[in-house]
Structure formats: C-alpha cells, structure tokens
Specification:
2 copies of one chain form a homodimer.
Chain A lengths: L8 E6 L11 E6 L5 E6 L7 H9 L7 E5 L8 H19 L6 E5 L9 H13 L5 H7 L8 E6 L4 E7 L12 E6 L5 H13 L16 E6 L9 H21 L7 E9 L2 H12 L2 H8 L5 H8 L12 E4 L2 E5 L2 E2 L12 E7 L5 E8 L3 H8 L4
Parallel strand pairs in A: 4-5, 8-9, 10-14
Antiparallel strand pairs in A: 1-2, 2-4, 3-9, 6-7, 7-8, 10-15, 11-12, 11-14, 12-13
Chain lengths: 382, 382
C-alpha cells in the first residue's frame, strides 16, 4: 500500500513514455487533507538537480498538497530549459488538482544531463491525475530505475498509520537525505514536528547507508501528513515508528543495490563519539579493497584497519578488535582467530569494530564491490 | 640501472622464500659513501606497519647507510613479534655490513596481518649482502608484489645522477608518500636539502596519484645521497630533476595498476586554489560510478559533476565546463557537444575540468574500475 496506506492520500501512476522500457514512469501522490503539513530533507550534494531546487522552495512554508515523481531522467544539469520543465510540471499538477503550484513537490531520477520531454511530462501528469486512487503499489513501481523491485513499508501507530515508498539502487551515499522517498501519515502533526521527526529518523537510517560512496544530485525524502486519523500522536512515539519505516526502506535499498552479492553491516563500538563511529564505519564502507575482498568471501581484516587509519577518529591501532560474522580475527591490532574460521558465503555480513576508547556506537550499511556492479555501472542507460 | 645508476651505491637481490612464487623477494641497497645523507616520507595512514615505525626513527638524524626491502609480507598489525622481526632484520644488515642498525631503513610489502618468517629474512639478508654489486635491476624486481613489471627511472643532472625504483599496483592513494620507492643520487646534498627536495617532488607526483582511493599502511619513499659525484647541485635544479624521476615512476605505477584498462589524467583548471583543484580532482578520481563508466568507454560527465558537488571547493555548478579527450561535453553546467563525439577506447583518457573561478590548477592520475580490479582484489594472495 505504501503511500496510500494512510488515510487522506491518493496516488496515480502512468507510463508517460519517459523510460525506454515503456513501463510506469510517472507517479503522483496527493494529500486530500484535511491538513497539509509537510517536511523534506534533500541531498547535501552542492550540484543539485532542478527538482531539488524547486522542492526546496516549496517546502519552505511547511505545506505540500501533492508530490509528482518521474523516473527516466534526473533533470540535472539541463540548464534553464530543464528548470522550466520542472516548473511546468508543477503547474500542470496544480491545474489538474485545483491547487497552487507552490504546494507541489517535484522529484526526478535517471540519467544526468539529458532533457526531459516536456510534452510527455505534461500528458503524463494529466493521465495520473485522472487515475487517482489507492494506487500506492503502482506509484512505488513508477519511480524505479535500475531497481529490481519496488520498496514499500508500512507501520501502524496508536490510531494512525505511516506508509512509504523508496527507489534507489546506485549512487547510494546520501549526505542528508537519500534517493527518492515519499512517506505519508494520517497523524495530526505540525510542520515543525514533522521536520524534527524526519531529521531524527533519516539521521540514523538513510544517512547510515553508504552502498557505493557516490552521492546523488537528486536525493529527496518527503514526509506528508493529512491529519485524516484525527490523532495527534506523542512525537517520540511517532519518531520511533517513522524511524522503523526509514530503516526498513534503507535495508530494502541496501538489499537491492546494483550488482551487490553481500549486504554488509558495519557496527562500530567503543568509539569516543558517535561522529567518530560514523566516520570509521563510512571509511570502511567506502574502501574498495575491503569491498572486493568481501565479494571474494575473504575476511581481509587488514584492509579494515588500513581504512580506519585514514580517519581522524580517536583510536590506537594496537587496541582495535575486529570480528567478522562472529569470529574475532583481530585482537589488539594483531591476528587472533584464523581467517579460515570465518564463513562469508551468506549474503549478510556482520563486521564488528571495537575501537576500545569510549561508549559511542554507530552502524553503517554497505555492499560489496562486484563484477556486476562494474558491469551495470559501465552500461548505465535507464 | 635504477638505484645503482648513481655512483656510490650497490644493491643485492635474492629469493628468500617469502613469496609463494619463489621469485626474488628481498632487496638490499647500500650507500657506499663517501656521504650518507638521506630523507624519507611516509604514509599518513595512522595505522602504520612495523617497518614504517622503525624507519621513522632511523631517518630522524638525516643519515641512512642502507635500506632493506622485502615483498611477500607487509609486517603490519603483527604485534610486538612483528616489530622484533623488523628490528632483527636491521640488525642483520648492520652486522653483515659493519654499520649501525640505527642507519638501516626497512620496507615491507604484501599481505597485512601475517607474520614474516624471521629465519628466512635473516638468511635472505646474509645472501643479499654477499651479492652486492650493480644489481639495481634485480632489486627493482625483488620488491614487486602484484606488479606486472618493475618500475625504474634515471635522470642525469649537471654532473650527477638520480636513479630510482618503485613498486605498487594496488592500495594506491598515498597521503604523503606512496608505495615503496627508493631513489639514490651521487649529488652532494645535506639531509635538510634532500628533505625539502623530496617533499616538493612527492607533493606533485606520488601525492597526485589516486588509483583506487585506498591508502596503504606501508608507503615509504626514501632518497639517499652518496656525494660520490663530488657535485653540489643547485637545489632548484636538483628538485626539478627529482620531480621528473618521481613523476615518471608515478606514471609507471598508474600504468600498471591492478586490473586497470584506462589511465585517466584529471586536469582541474580555473580553481580558486591549488587545494581546491586537488580536492576536486581527487573526488572525481575516487568516484566509482565515473570510474566504471570510463571502463565502459562511456563519457558520463554527469558523474563528474556529481563528484565535484561533494567537495568544499569554490565553484558554481552552472559555470563548470568538462571536456573528455578534447571534446567539451558540458558547458556552463549543461550539455554541450554530443557524448558520441568522445572516443574513450584508447588507454589514455584526459578529463579537463574548468571550475571558472580562479587560476589554480592540479592534475590527478587515476584508473578505471574494471572487472579485473574486482577479480584481483577479491583473490589477493601475493
């Protein structure tokens, strides 16, 4: 059900002819109210796509009535013509729904540096607006690019529902937000409450996913609240439930990362600060040699320590422990149990790094570096 | 001739049984004088191998009489037993040559986290010391790991010679120094002059090479001067010649990078500062999506701009030009000439990025991300 699980939301999804495959490629999600509070977080990449530039303006007043998303083109580095396409798309949504274009969020995903065909976008919006209903599943399919399957998640709170959809399989290293994610809820919440909850949830979910170290120009996570349940939840409880939805979607993104054969969970403990733990986990997650070793089922902990050594985190190289899938292969910076005791054949790989200097922890999700990753990204054409 | 091209230097190389292949794996380079000035730069990785910890002490007084190098094991994260192996190796060299162990530099390369066999190291040192002569070529072969060929370079100055050797094919992203490099000269220079010249030369050569973003624990570049020519050169002239040797060796390292099918030269111009230019070049060089695209001969300039967007460099995304192999595919942040005009089939790829904000420039050397890179690094066993 994804974005239409919560009351007060409808969605439409159509094949607008943007994707070469001819599949669904344009989704429209509408908040029917009674309330229209919204929050969003965006990529921290300084090279931002046109829909990001537009949506950052829209969200300024904490209100969004609809969000339109397309695959088949990122509309990034397409000049003023590209910005006009985004603007006209929002205008078309506003015209079809009788709302203001200033309350329409826009998201795009696909190849950078190619113009989107304006006529197809406008026709697609019209068709999507004519097919609004409980189409959360179809909407989650329309935003797919190289994704092999759609990503959806729903949680029930005390009298309210949170549902969401996500796309993303490559360029997965968000700075603040990530990929395209739309989450809806029928809870009654004010924009500033939504903003606080969304930032808290994304900080420990999407922001801890680093599949390939490559930050996108188009990442956007939007949260829309209709208030249709009539329930004003406790903000802590709501944030916890929202975090569960975000973590679930982040794990689905990790599990479908382009070409990956392992889902790697790097847990850093004993850090002096959470920032240190995140820096260490991210440095290991981005180390190509470590990632290639995991692809080959090789528990090469020396590459883990070499990656830690490039960080500014507090640690003593001779007081670090590393375990892989439960086997401590490195103790106090020296060999411990034999590498052969480690079985890396399962898709899930757990790496535990104990820095031994404090109590802070963080977990980073990543993937291995595979032949298929190289292949899929050397022939990108979606 | 490499390290024995300059007068006053001898070398020996033997198969000490450290490499599974049974090939040459231990090299000894001796400065016969009359002078023994030396300088060295080391990895900035905070996780340092035992030979790095040792050599940093040795170089403190600006004198080195010999340098012993082994492949077949990095002697990193091998605890106090590993440090003892390094220490004993230096002692063995000192004993064989009648010098002080405190004047013996040590370098190791190979797998991290495995002990080196002390008995074989000591026997190898003895054999190498017995075979000293003009064996610079054999020495350059003895330090190879996954290298497909040895790297050597020689330049003649005004009455003096600079010669060097290098090894390195993976984990190529030095922070200060890189890989194992030994350079000798018969010029008459003081330790502080050697240090200044070496830092100036490595800053614009090895420090601008970033093959795979992975910084080694064992990088060391050593420069030894025998004074045997009797010529005390102009330091600027010497530094220029030394820089040529370093650049030549760096390009040989790039050309032999594990699994690479393209040598990519990223030239950043129009930057506000040299630091900005280096940061931008390095960010592009480390972007796996860009590197995989080059492997597939795809001039995907959007991935270049997305990588620039993650830096802190001064730039306006809508005032950046990108050319590939002479074809400007992006002008002012929008599509320019067609991608199809770019021919990326040659091994050499030139990427020119004009940030359009200043006069500073820098060039970073890197490689593409290939199936062979993944394969070789998932089955590392040298």
């Amino acid at each position: 059900m994804s974005v239409t699980a919560a009351r007060g939301f409808t969605a439409g999804a159509v094949a607008a002819g943007l994707k070469a495959s001819g599949g669904l490629d344009l989704a429209l999600v509408v908040n029917e109210g009674p309330e229209h509070a919204a929050a969003a977080v965006f990529t921290s990449n300084r090279a931002k796509a046109n829909p990001i530039i537009w949506s950052q303006q829209v969200i300024g007043d904490g209100r969004a009535d609809a969000i339109v998303l397309n695959s088949g083109g990122a509309n990034c580095f397409t000049g003023s013509e590209g910005f006009q396409v985004t603007h006209s798309t929002a205008e078309a949504v506003a015209s079809a729904l009788g709302i203001s274009a200033g309350d329409v969020l826009v998201c795009s995903t696909g190849l950078i540096g190619e113009q989107l065909p304006l006529d197809r976008m406008l026709a697609g919006v019209e068709a999507a607006a004519s097919s609004l209903g409980e189409n959360g599943v179809a909407a989650s399919e329309a935003i797919m690019t190289t994704d092999s399957k759609p990503k959806r998640s729903v949680r029930e709170g005390s009298g309210y529902v949170i549902g969401g959809m996500a796309k993303g399989a490559g360029m997965l290293a968000p700075g603040l937000a990530t990929m395209l994610v739309v989450i809806t809820t029928d809870a009654v919440l004010q924009p500033d409450q939504l903003d606080r909850a969304l930032r808290a949830a994304t900080r420990v979910s999407f922001d801890r996913l680093d599949s390939d170290g490559c930050m996108s120009t188009n990442d956007q996570v939007s949260l829309l609240a209709s208030g249709a349940s009539g329930i004003a939840p406790d903000l802590t409880e709501f944030t916890d439930a929202l975090t569960e939805v975000c973590r679930d979607l982040a794990e689905q993104l990790q599990g479908d990362a382009e070409g990956a054969s392992h889902d790697i969970r790097i847990e850093v403990v004993g850090a002096a600060s959470e920032d240190d733990a995140v820096e260490v986990g991210r440095s290991v997650a981005r180390n190509n040699l470590f990632k290639a070793a995991v692809f080959g089922n090789d528990p090469n902990w020396g590459r883990v320590l070499a990656a830690i050594g490039t960080t500014s985190a507090a640690f003593d190289p001779y007081n670090v422990d590393v375990s892989m899938n439960g086997v401590r292969v490195c103790h106090a910076g020296a060999p411990d149990r034999p590498r052969d005791d480690v079985d890396l054949t399962p898709r899930r790989v757990d790496v535990l790094i104990d820095l031994g200097v404090g109590d802070a922890t963080a977990t980073i999700l990543t993937n291995d570096l595979t032949h298929d990753y190289v292949h899929e990204n050397s022939a990108y054409s979606s």
